[in-house]
Specification:
Methylamine Dehydrogenase, Chain H; five-stranded antiparallel beta sheet; single chain; 0% helix; mainly beta
Amino acid sequence: MRRILFAALALAISCGTANASQVQYFALPSGAGPHDVAAAPDGAIWYTGQRAGHLGRLDPKTGKVEVIPLGKGSAPHGVIVGPDGAAWVTDSGLNANVRVDPKTKEVKVFALPAEFANANLNTGTFDRKGIYWFTGQNGVYGRVNPSTGKTDAWKSPKGRGPYGIATTPSGDVWYVSLAGDHLAKVDTVTGEATIVEPPRPGVGPRRVWSDSKGILWVSFWHSGEVARYDPAAKSWKTWPINNAKSGCYSVYVDDKDKVWLTDFISNAILRFDPATEKFESFPSDKRGASVRQMLGRPGEAWGAESGTDRLVVVRD
């Protein structure tokens, strides 16, 4: 497997927020088109180079980037770190889920069943039993058993749209459908999906994440809102993120239950405090940043600027 090292330029700037958080950028190889990011246990940051067809690994201490080609036709979308410490990737170009070993960089491909060609794979999550679940925007969701390599897939109840997916602390798996305009809970035994309608039609749920209490946070792309869904109370609450009423893309909840979002209209990362119901803004220093998803670890919230070929981190 051919690997490439790239010396990234790291640029740190102070952001004028109340708590003086620091924003730092890391340049990636030109044309990478980074889509999603994931923080690794060893301190490194994985990212999917969607346009270039590779998985990248940034060392934030040195700024160096290691590029791992995933195969001919690859177009990786999502990346997470599994309980095995490996990077797990949804690759729409390969129509497969991919595991990359963090030490050997071995690439293992788990192709979807033949009847689910062109699934347009998007995002993955692990349940509490170590099973990997994924979505495909062309109306598919499914799972991979890492111990056997077996892949199962199902058609979404409302067709096209499955996008973001997340696991709650209790082990429940939920996905959201952008085109299908709904939230759904997946039965991890049978694979059946139970639909939860949004508070009103046409909001476009794009990403979903759980806080420490199992409350779900959802980005409403079409309406420009962050939404909270309480599965126990079966209730929704929403907050607008901008005046344009569109463009809320990513959502990630950190270890302090602060909610991170991206606002495509204002070209900024947002932090929302559910306790005070207030937003803090971290605008990019370049136009068209287009941060599509965020993940992190204590004290760090990471994103990929797909429009500028950079990774970005906001540190407390």
